[in-house]
Amino acid sequence: MPPSQQHAVSSDMTVPAPQESLGAVLFMESWPAPTIDPAENSRMGRLAPHVVACAHATVVMDLQRPDVDMVVWGRRIPATWEGTLTNCSQVPSALTFAGTPSEIADSLANPALHQDWSPLILTDVRDLSALFGALTGGVRQHIQLITPSRGETAFELPPDALRLICAYGNAGPEWCGSQNPKSGIVSTLTPFAVAFIKGAAEGKLGCLHRLPANIANGARPGPVLVMDTISR
């Protein structure tokens, strides 16, 4: 199994938080090549996705790079979010929306949704939909807020140009560092981290990922946001 390559980079970038300033940590993962540069060689002879992650939101700009398959914004959320959402035992009914970012925002403002879903989650979905729209030129979006069913889920590729995925709970989605999940390294995204996964044409390389499975104690992993572009 080819080893992963990690490059820790110190930077002056900070993520604003109440009464504190947190330094960002950037890492890149690449198999089997030791670096993801140069871009012209990005998809030649490599067997696994190139992933860039950072605590600073500006990492999403790396989506413009043709040699990057997935970008992870490992955001730092307020402690009140974590306490409120990870301790929530309620299992709301799934929500599905389709439309432009403004239409999604209007749908999320429906007071009836607040009976089942935390306002924190709904507000965050609205904000992430706006960010997703800015990155994709405002194309229509398909949004799901779901609680994964018990049992293992299958790895998949995004169905269109770009997918956003974020878990609100005790477990995060998983992604595979290989094109073969049975033999590749499987990594877990931290809860509340936002992953932007590029779509891949049939027969091309891409970043395989899946919704979180059950946690060790058998508890549910919590709600997951899945947001896709609709280009057709």
Furnish the topology, listing elements before pairings.
Layout: E1 9-17, E2 20-29, E3 51-54, E4 70-73, H1 79-86, E5 95-99, H2 101-108, H3 119-136, E6 140-146, E7 162-167, E8 174-176, E9 186-188, E10 194-198, E11 209-210, E12 224-230
Parallel strand pairs: 3-4
Antiparallel strand pairs: 1-2, 2-3, 4-10, 5-6, 6-12, 7-10, 7-12, 8-9, 8-11
Helix pairs in contact: 2-3
Give structural notes.
Helix 2 (101-108) packs antiparallel against helix 3. The termini are far apart. It is built from 3 helices and 12 strands; from the N terminus they run E-E-E-E-H-E-H-H-E-E-E-E-E-E-E. It has helices at residues 79-86, 101-108, 119-136, and strands at residues 9-17, 20-29, 51-54, 70-73, 95-99, 140-146, 162-167, 174-176, 186-188, 194-198, 209-210, 224-230. Strands 1-2-3-4-10-7-12-6-5 form a 9-stranded mixed β-sheet, with helices on one face.
Measured by DSSP, the beta-strand proportion falls in 25-35%
Work out the radius of gyration: 18 Å
Helix content: 10-25%
**Looking at the structure, what is the overall shape?**
globular
Going by helix content, strand content and strand pairing, the class is alpha+beta
How many H/I helical runs? 3
The count of DSSP E runs of length 2 or more, i.e. the number of strands, is 12
Q: Give start-end ranges of low-pLDDT stretches.
A: 1-26, 30-37
Cα(first) to Cα(last) distance is 39 Å
Arithmetic mean pLDDT: 76
Please provide the ordered H/E string of secondary-structure elements.
Answer: EEEEHEHHEEEEEEE
Q: What topology, given as strand order, has the largest sheet?
A: 1-2-3-4-10-7-12-6-5
Quick one: biggest sheet?
A: 9 strands, mixed
